[in-house]
């Protein structure tokens, strides 16, 4: 079966954290300038504390085609204004490379889009696998109130990260807390 849209399935095994970590990345509020919709809330929070939003535990492998880069991503719970904590998000530099995520803990969404502006926002919960096909930018968002969103990921060694495109344009879709719960809304600030 082939499919060029994201899809999910379930592997019901218990949660796990890696017994091997080669590199630990911490991303704080200050690394996310311009990414959250409510810039006033962002500046006010940052003035108070440079909060830790997410962490990545990487298992290092050679960054070449044929290898797989793996690790665990941990997005902490919280919001900037009404918008849930999230990763920076990126395209792969080699656009034609995919990625796979397995959700170990927590609840959230993967926000995705292609350079042509096709969008997908897929829910994430423990036991689910999310396949991000080649050419789809991806950002994980934690919507748990108190729990981390913990995912295992793997992607081709030669993929690379293009953060610049998302830094400039943002994603088309935002994940916000609304009066009746979680809302997926259009990003009024998305730049063509
Ligand atoms: O490669 C990936 O897509 C993930 O490992 C991410 O790097 C991780 O979730 C952190 O997100 P970002 O790289 O957008 O800061
Ligand atoms: Ni990626």
Trace the largest sheet across and list its strands. 1-11-8-13-4-3-2
**Secondary structure tally: strands:** 16
Number of helices: 2
Radius of gyration: 16 Å
Q: What structural class do helix, strand and pairing data support?
A: mainly beta
Largest sheet: 7 strands, antiparallel
What is the residue-averaged pLDDT? Answer: 91
Helix content: under 10%
Terminal CA distance reads: 33 Å
Shape: globular
Question: β content, as a range?
Answer: 35-45%
Order of helices and strands: EEHEEEEEEEEEEEEHEE
What does this structure look like?
- Strands 1-11-8-13-4-3-2 form a seven-stranded antiparallel beta sheet, with no helix packed on it.
- About 3% of the residues have low confidence.
- With 192 residues, it is mainly beta.
- It has two helices and 16 strands.
- A hairpin with a 2-residue loop joins strand 5 and strand 6.
- Bound molecules: 5-phosphoarabinonic acid and nickel (II) ion.
- The site of 5-phosphoarabinonic acid has 14 residues, from strand 4, strand 12 and strand 13.
Task: Write the topology of this structure.
Blueprint: E1 7-10, E2 23-28, H1 39-48, E3 52-59, E4 68-75, E5 79-80, E6 83-84, E7 91-92, E8 99-105, E9 108-113, E10 119-124, E11 128-132, E12 137-142, E13 149-156, E14 161-162, H2 164-169, E15 173-178, E16 181-186
Antiparallel strand pairs: 1-11, 2-3, 3-4, 4-13, 5-6, 7-14, 8-11, 8-13, 9-10, 9-12, 15-16
